[in-house]
Amino acid sequence: MTKLDELIEQIQSDSNANESMNGLLDKLVKARDTMQDPTDADAAEQLLTEVLKEYLGGALGDISEENADPEYMEKTSAAVEEAFTSQGWSNFSKRSRRNDLMQYELGFNIENTSIRVSVFVEDLPKRIRIHATLPFVGEKTYEYLLSRAIVDANKRFIYGAFSYDQNDGEITYDYSYPITHGFFQDDFLRILHAVIRTSVDDEAFSAIKKAAQGRYKRTEREDILKSLAPLVEDLTD
C-alpha cells in the first residue's frame, strides 16, 4: 500500500476528517485515478506531495526530499544494518528509493511459513516502518469477508495492524514508530521480532488466510450467507 493509499484510507475511515477534509480527499482520489500503475510507490508519493502542496497553498513550506538530512539517513541506516548483523542476518537487500527513504528486505521462515519483511528508514517524517508480507494474496471475490477478518484480527493489537491492498491483494502486518529522538537498537529489534511473530499469529493468520482464499466449511458458508442476506435484500430493494 502506497502513502497515497494510506492517507485516502485514513481520511475515509475518520468521520471528522472526512467532513473537514472532503476537498482534499477528492483531490487525492482523482490523483490516484490518473496513475497508470496505482501500486507504484514512488509515483504515488510524488503525486501525494504535489496534491498536498496545492491543497495547503504552501502553508507547510517545501516538503520535498530536498529537506532530507543526509547525516541522519546515513547514521540511521548504518544502525539498522548493525542491528541486522547482531542477529546474524546478513542476507538482506537494500535500496535507496529517495534521499529521505532507505528500504531493506529480509526473508524469514517461521513455523514453515515464509514471510517477507520490509524495513523502511524515513527522514520526512523521521520514523521506522516495518511491513511483514504474508505468503498469500486476497482474492477479489472474498474481499468483503477478508476485510471483516482483518478488522476482527486487528482488535487484538494496540499499535500495529494487518492491512489489505485492494490493488494487488497483498496482505501485510504493518508497524511504524517515530525516531525523532534517536534510533535505539534494543527497541528496534524488539519491535521487529514482535512484528514477525504477530504476522504468523496462529489465530489471526489462519482466519485471514481462510477469508482471503474462501476456504470455508459447508456450515460456515451457510452461516455467511445467512448473515449477508439482510444486506443483499436491502441493496436489491
Structural summary, described in words:
This protein has 237 residues and is of the alpha+beta class. It has nine helices and six strands, in the order αααααββββαββααα. The protein has helices at 3-13, 15-20, 22-33, 41-56, 70-86, 143-154, 185-199, 202-213, 218-236; strands at residues 93-98, 101-110, 113-122, 127-137, 161-164, 170-178. A six-stranded antiparallel beta sheet has the order 1-2-3-4-6-5. β2 and β3 (113-122) form a beta hairpin. The longest helix has 19 residues, at 218-236. The protein is globular. The model is unreliable at 58-63 (pLDDT under 50).
What features would you highlight for this structure?
51% helix, 237 residues, 6 strands, alpha+beta, 6-stranded antiparallel beta sheet, 9 helices, globular
Short description:
This protein is of the alpha+beta class and 237 residues long. The chain is 51% helix and 21% strand. Helix 3 runs antiparallel to helix 4 and helix 6 runs antiparallel to helix 8 (202-213).
Which spans have pLDDT < 50 for at least 5 consecutive residues? 58-63
Share of residues in helices: 40-55%
SS class: alpha+beta
Distance between the termini: 35 Å
Query: H/E element string?
Result: HHHHHEEEEHEEHHH
Question: Whole-number average pLDDT?
Answer: 86
Number of strands: 6
β-strand amount: 15-25%
Rg from alpha-carbon coordinates? 20 Å
Q: Mind describing the biggest β-sheet?
A: 6 strands, antiparallel
Number of helices: 9
Report the principal-axis shape: globular
Strand order, main sheet: write it out: 1-2-3-4-6-5
